[in-house]
Amino acid sequence: MLFMLIPMATGNQTRITEFILMSFSSLPTEIQTLLFLAFLTIYLVTLLGNSLIILVTLADPMLQSPMYFFLRNLSFLEIGFNLVIVPKMLGTLIAQDTSISFLGCATQMYFFFFFGVAECFLLATMAYDRYVAICSPLHYPVIMNQETRVKLAAASWFPGFPVATVQTTWLFSFPFCATNKVNHFFCDSPPVLRLVCADTAQFEVYAIVGTILVVMIPCLLILCSYTLIAASILKIPSAKGKHKAFSTCSSHLLVVSLFYVSSSLTYFRPKSNNSPESKKLLSLSYTVVTPMLNPIIYSLRNNEVKSALSRTFHKALALRNHIT
After folding, report:
1. Which of 1, 29, 164, 212 could bridge 113 with an S-S bond, Cβ 3.0-4.6 Å?
2. What is the CATH number of the domain that holds 50?
3. Is 12 a member of any domain?
């Protein structure tokens, strides 16, 4: 249990019971208020957009293919990702409530790792789904049957548990020094690690290797899938056929690019070029902005989703008129 990992006071080490999230405290109050309004708007759009995707893909009979099953999983994941980070960040901006308990910090980090790892593997699973749909269209319903898609979704979510458990438990078992100020807007591993007063070399090696594996394995699977997809599309004789095949992948490709570019720039930049303020900005891109953009991308670039949203809206409107 995480609450058993609270370090006890020994020698010159102070028992830390809470952390202080520095967040954007260096900015003027007026700027923080504007950031609060901007992030609150993004947060509400994220919750609304992803909730609509989940509801529409569940309710509409035209959106029952495996692709939309995985899209529901992605939307659910994005909602969880936002709930872990954004509410506390909004509190630090508007109420200046910058404190977070030891257990709260550990819990936030745990679920941040869990959802982050799950997203990497889920995006790879969605790439495999597109590969089967384009390269084996006749066998697609058989290969991606109900049992297979459930197993693939479970396999995408599962790696988050061991990664989050090991990394969070290990990090919070270290003794912390007297300072408890985390120079970030949430409890991420690098800024919390800087507060540790012990030799963390072994943990840092594990963290680097683990991050590379978690990022690179799904990334390689995505690259392999899209290499085969590209080869298959090039064999299609008509330009219209090529465009139709590519359009089924374009939304996923854009989402993958946004997620991997922002997260890679955050965690794989040289330390000399990775100031805390620049890292905060990059972290905002994949923790706050990308979850908002995903449902927008899938809605605007997918005619089936747009049609389903329109049908759902008209049904709701007709039901309302019937009741009144």
Report:
1. 164
2. 1.20.1070.10
3. no
